[in-house]
Amino acid sequence: MRRVILHVDMDSFFSAIEMREHPELKGLPVVVGSADRARGVVSTCSYEARKYGIHSAMALSQAYRLCPGAKFLPVNMELYRRVSAAIMDILRGYADKMEQVSIDEAFLDITTKVRTWEEARMYAERIKKEIWDKQQLSCSIGIAPNKIVAKIASDFKKPNGLTVVEHAKEFLAQLPVVCIPGVGPKTEKVLKHMGITRIEQLANCDVQLLVSRLGKHGRRLHRIARGIDDSEVVPNRERKSLSRERTLAKDTDDIATLERQVEELAEEVHRALNGFVFKIVSIKVKYSNFRLITRSRTLKTFHSDLATLKCVAKELLRLVDVSKDDKIRLVGVRVAKLSLLDCRQQKLIC
Ligand code: TTP
Ligand code: MG
Predict the structure, then answer these.
(1) For position 347, what pLDDT does the model report?
(2) Do you find a cis peptide bond into 68, omega within 30 degrees of 0?
(3) Which ligand is nearest to the CA of 159?
(4) Which of 67, 97, 87, 75 is nearest to 8 (CA)?
(5) What is the pLDDT of residues 122-161, one digit of tens each?
(6) Dihedral Cα 182, 183, 187, 192, nearest 10 deg
(7) Ligand 1, closest atom to CA 47?
């Protein structure tokens, strides 16, 4: 067999934990969100609450209007992190390589653990059973020859799903383009204008046309649509840094332009962080004459928020000399000393 990648995503994670802790909530619409109901947002909600149209990131006030009878609970992050750590410990035991990508999801490379796709299915059943027996929580699992398809597959039959995909391209063909991680409303709209709503249409579209409308993102989508993704499962302890850089359309000495680029790159880096915290922020600048400099700052503590990343990156940019004779052709933003926090012990797990 080629690679066998398994993606696990816990079902309605925060609310499932609350329902386990408070069995009287079983079967009810449960909404977990910030304590402030007037201005807060929904972190997640039970599948019963989803029937009312409630979803993550919705204003709590709106959730309340949609279902006044729902049980509203504040976020108990310490508890969720503790449960998350216990689940990740279970998963680690099943994988050649494991990469935790958020509080409730992970990729496992199980290539050497199974010989057939049927064995892979049974392997996943064992994982689901152990998580249920030890934590009384359900999860959904996708198994596929690569990471992206495994992730799409875990979302295919939620909750408590198990989807094994042997032939990536065929599986993807009939799905809507929004099933691809990273296709948000903006990309969906562009694709719709091009007459593309299903992944099969994306796969059959001319790649140059996609690139002309969506830039690099278009090339990535075209590969995914054809079931291609070579990215490896990277064990967390091996992920040391993350960076994004961009060659500017035109060399510039305009600080506002450079700041805007740095902000956008910080946003990209932040999206890719996926639950990691960072301690070092750096920027990289290449001048028109290809001279390269970097500026770095080590923060006192670990941070996870975009505001800090943007702010430090822009401060570092201000340390860089820019003039008419010394224009800039490329900027980059990097974070390093990455980690995932285990709140159980308030210490780093990798
Ligand atoms: P998800 O896995 O996206 O959602 P979920 O586990 O609640 O539901 P699903 O069954 O669809 O997987 O996110 C995991 C947890 O992360 C979620 O329980 C709460 C938290 N979260 C937020 O706090 N805000 C958000 O906007 C999202 C999407 C998640
Ligand atoms: Mg989940």
Answers:
(1) 39
(2) no
(3) 1
(4) 87
(5) 999 999 999 999 999 999 999 999 999 999 999 999 999 9
(6) 170
(7) 10
3-state secondary structure of 84: helix
Please say if the pLDDT value at position 315 is more than 80: yes
**Local structure of residue 254 (DSSP, 8 states):** -
Residue 306 has pLDDT above 80, yes or no: yes
| Interatomic CA distance for residues 56 and 109, integer angstroms | 29
Please tell me the predicted confidence (pLDDT) of residue 274.
67
Residue 334 has pLDDT above 90, yes or no: yes
Q: How far, rounded to the nearest angstrom, does the alpha carbon of residue 81 sit from its chain's CA centroid?
A: 17
Of 5-14, 115-124, 177-186, 340-349, least confident by mean pLDDT is 340-349
Which chain residues have CB less than 5 Å from ligand 2, an ion? Answer: 9-10, 13, 104
Q: Which residue, chain included where needed, has tokens 């691809």? A: 180
Residue labelled with tokens 């499962």: 233
Q: Give me ligand 1 centre to Cα 39, in Å.
A: 19
Residue nearest to atom 10 of ligand 1 (CA): 11
The answer to whether 227 and 169 are in contact (CB under 8 A) is yes
Asked if 245 and 333 touch (Cβ cutoff 8 Å), the reply is yes
Instruction: Say if residue 343's pLDDT is above 50.
Output: no
Question: Which has more confidence, 312 or 346?
Answer: 312
Which among 45, 47, 56 is the best mutation to test ligand 1's pocket, defined by most ligand atoms within 8 Å of the CB?
A: 56
Q: Which of 8, 13, 31, 58 to mutate to test the pocket of ligand 1 (most atoms within 8 A of CB)?
A: 13
Do residues 258 and 293 touch, judged by C-beta distance below 8 A?
no
Task: Take atom 21 of ligand 1 and give the residue whose Cα is closest.
Answer: 43
Q: Is 105 a catalytic residue?
A: yes
Q: Whose CA is nearest to atom 23 of ligand 1?
A: 43
